[in-house]
Amino acid sequence: MPFFIPSQYKNKNMEWQAFGVAERFMRYVQIDTQSDPNSSSFPSTEKQKVLSRLLLQELKALGFEDTEMDANGYVIVTIPATVELEAMQQNQPPVICFCAHLDTAPDCSGTNVKPILHQRYNGAPIILPDDPTQIITVDQYPYLKKFIGREIITASGKTLLGADDKAGVAILVSLAAYLKAHPELKHGVIKLLFTPDEEVGRGADLIDFKKLNADFGYTLDGGALGCFEMESFSADQLILTIDGVMAHPGSAKGLMQNAIKIAADIIAALPKNHWCPEQTEGRAGFVHPTHIQGGAEQVEIEFLIRDFDTAQLAVYEAKLVALAESILQQNIQYNRSSVKAKVKHQYRNMKEIINQHPKMVDLALAAYKKAGIEPTIEPIRGGTDGSRMSFMGLPTANIFTGMQAIHSKHEWVGVSDMQQAVQVLAYMVEIN
Ligand SMILES: [Zn+2]
Q1: Is 157 within 8 Å of 134 (Cβ atoms)?
Q2: How far is CA 357 from CA 177, 192, 362, in A?
Q3: C-alpha of residue 32 to centroid of ligand 1, in Å
Q4: Tens digits of residue pLDDT in 86-117
Q5: Ligand 1 center to residue 29 CA distance, Å?
Q6: What integer pLDDT is reported at residue 396 of this predicted model?
Q7: What is the pTM of this model?
Q8: Could you tell me the distance, in angstroms and rounded to a whole number, from the CA of residue 314 to the centre of ligand 1?
Q9: 198 part of the active site
């Protein structure tokens, strides 16, 4: 595949840079790997496998023989230990898995991505050449200030960049290249895992955990330098079914109880200043109606229920049902109607699992410290593949890659953030 390599790109002498994370990144983003939420096949788009195959080739070429791609597009790489594991007996190092996703978000085009390397960013607004209405400014993205005088990469205006998560992919391949070049660095067995379909919520579905056989893992899918995420929402969906009473409208007096009107009353009774995503942030949870369907006889309302504390979900659910029932009770004209609720488990706060593995947090934070990076530990107001993987048997936290303004035409990444992520991972695996 012919790649567009910006002519101004040159390797500098800094060692982490010599492992080519920016060069890899700019090649990977040019492969369209957009996933599709409306597809029922797996992976959701066949084109994601183009990147899987390229990674398979590159990692084999680096000398990692135990590199496999399965029929679903997952790539698993085993980096063998550089220490005598048997001699270490009880002190065997853990098998660590690092994971990145191959796909890019369906929200914004990923076709014909043209990465632009801005070699010494001067702080001025960046007008993207293929669509001059797309302008990246430090006012909008204060984090950009950190990169004045340094290298950043943007897209060209018509597409997303795909730093989410090609930055993670490039960081992992660069780690592999670094470890290959430094056989003297002592480490245990390391697994690299590349997954399709993260953006459509299916990335964890078909991971072969048995084959992976790792003790714990980290996704490379976080934002600014220093971010470390080990906590996600706990999530349920609640479906409220309202059964009204139907009658011919011409002779409905005293008979008809319209489910649409009951549903409207319930929605209107939801708190407007709290308990909703529009008014909450930080650690506050919420109840959020996402979909409504039905007719005068029956209406279904779907709600997302979210909190960091799993026990709160049941409290919110009971409160929501009580609110719906009170609407029926307070209105004599709804006396023969009914509501019922069905709760579907979605995902749980990964911290419940990660708390049982304090070593994986210590290991990461010690490596941040060694690299001179101040960790910022913030809960994710959403779910990630890591939260699902944690409950599927692989405790998984999330590490920074530098990606910014993701899922948009403004998406950008600072090259030094990616380089520092490679460095952090090398520190994490190193046995002193
Ligand atoms: Zn991502």
Answers
A1: yes
A2: 29, 20, 9
A3: 15
A4: 888 888 999 999 999 999 999 899 999 999 99
A5: 13
A6: 96
A7: 0.87
A8: 29
A9: yes
